[in-house]
Amino acid sequence: MTGAAPGANGAALSIRKLVKEYVPGKPVLSGIDLDIAPRGLTGIIGASGTGKSTLVRCINRLVAPTSGEIHFEGADLVGLSGERLQHARRRIGMVFQEYNLVERLTVMENVLSGRLGYVPAWKAWLRRYPPEDIASAFGLLDQVGLGTFANQRADSLSGGQRQRVGIARALMQRPSLLLADEPTSSLDPRTSVEIMSLIRDLARHHGIPVLVNMHDVELAKRFAERIVGMSGGRIVFDGPPEALDDEVLTRIYGGKGWLS
After folding, report:
1. 73 CB-near residues (< 8 Å, 6+ apart)
2. In Å, what is the CA distance from 86 to each residue of 89, 116, 207?
3. Helix (H) or strand (E) segment spanning residue 69
4. Average pLDDT over residues 95-122
5. CA gap 226, 36 in Å, rounded
6. CA distances from 239 to 177, 195, 224 (A)
7. What DSSP designation does 43 have?
8. How deeply is 133 buried, as exposed, middle or buried, from its count of CB atoms within 10 A (0-12, 13-18, 19+)?
């Protein structure tokens, strides 16, 4: 639900009047208001260039907003910097479109990198993680179906397997919010369904909300409990997937020829 005060209704994330301009006077995001509930999978859809990825990247501050507010766990992320921002970001897991793994490292080392915000830098450099972190990493690898792959190098994996490592790494942060930026765009249809099923099921199991930027409308309708449609840097639809009729899709994507 949009338009409520930050933190209202127990929202896990509250965004208010968010603006991002890469070029002054040409906003990519134009006053976004959005609340994300503490549970459930929200899919963001819209045409290329409409601001979906920018919105996701503003939330975890990979991109610096021009103005507005992003309220998360009692703080406005827009106003944070340095150590305070680092501490806030480690509670936001991120699954990337192109996996973002360190190819020369093993699967286990990539998953353990999800704890980098929690362990001293010298311990991470020497791969000296606490025993409980190592146990958690093995558990997550089992959950994503890669329990026997711990010692394989990341560059030996298929695309679907790499994305499973990325999901496990994000969950190693023990986040209270999970973001995914087009996590299936590089995958075939069958693997895309498997990855979306995994994200949905693991988020439910760990009790965390998910915000997914998606390019596939049918995949969004299948897995998202809530759809946010964007056009021209603004939210033009916010509702359940069953409300995505041709009129709404035309409002989001423009034109009708592509629907036939």
Report:
1. 88, 91, 176
2. 5, 10, 23
3. strand 67-72
4. 87
5. 10
6. 20, 23, 10
7. E
8. middle
The token pair that represents 42 in the structure block: 């929200």
pTM of the shown model: 0.91
Q: Which residues of 38-51 are buried (b: 16+ CB within 10 A; e: fewer)?
A: eebbbbbbbbeebb
Instruction: Report H helices in the chain.
Output: 52-59, 82-89, 107-112, 121-125, 131-143, 159-172, 189-206, 217-223, 246-253
Q: What is the pLDDT of residues 64-82, one digit of tens each?
A: 999 999 999 999 999 999 9
- What phi, psi does 17 have (nearest 5°)? 50, 40
**Which tens digit of pLDDT belongs to each residue from 175-199?**
999 999 999 998 999 999 999 999 9
Q: Quickly tell me which residue has 């759809």 as its tokens.
A: 227
User: Average pLDDT of 238-259?
Assistant: 88
Assigned token pair, 47: 């045409």
Q: Distance between CA atoms of 107 and 123, rounded to whole angstroms?
A: 18
What interhelical angle do 159-172 and 131-143 show, nearest 10? 140
3-state class (DSSP) for residue 151: coil
The DSSP secondary-structure symbol of 5 reads: P
Please, which pLDDT band fits residue 5 given cuts at 50, 70 and 90? Answer: very low
